[in-house]
Amino acid sequence: MRTVVIILGGLVLLAVCVGIARAVGGSRSDDMLTAIIGFIAVWFMIAAANMWVGVTKAGYSFSEELPIFLLIFGVPAAAAILAKWKLL
Length: 88
Fold this sequence. Notes:
The protein is mostly helical. It has helices spanning about 1-25, 30-55, 60-85.
């Protein structure tokens, strides 16, 4: 359940990034591309921090946490790439 909540948080963050880009730059493709690339970079750091907490605090091994990291990072990142194709 926690994984689903984190993924939904990533999708909400993506929507916020795209919304800010639209509010600031309208529909200019440069602003959208910057927002999506920025989102992917920030989301990677958040997903990596989540993995770090799982390994250091929760006691999971790196190999146990890696598939969860890939899922948590991959779903919102894939949605960002899809949004890039649709919005640009």
